[in-house]
Amino acid sequence: MAINPAIDPHDPHKAHGGAGGPGYETRDVNVPALLKFAVSLAVILIVVSFGMKWTFGYYAKTQNLGPTVTPFENERTIPPVPRLQVAPQKEIHDYWESQQSIVNSYGWVDRQGGVVRIPVDRAMRLLLQRGLPARLPLNMKAPGGGEQKVEGGAQ
Question: How far is Cα 148 from Cα 91, in angstroms, rounded to an integer?
């Protein structure tokens, strides 16, 4: 759509109303289009509300929900089997106790391989006494007599 150069809304000298323009929109609102929109919106709302009323009436007749449950009813309905957790707090506490007994006790992990389990606090004390294993510097002889070779290190 081309802009008429004689009437430019961005140029105050060429706008409707002469130099500077009147300062407001000079066209009126399209009343028939506005009324058509309002009537069509009202018709749509009425049709939707009757449709909802019919739908709720249909489901009220076809679906029986049973008697209403009051919040004062004290009967506890138990779900069908299998019931997965009857007392989850007790079960998690029992699990925690079993894990603590494993972490804080001595035992065999692999008897044939000679692997044992020791308590965590004892393992930490042993680690502090003996220290962590560390790499030997480059080109230094390992305790076995051979030279340690490290590839890809800084030159």
Answer: 52
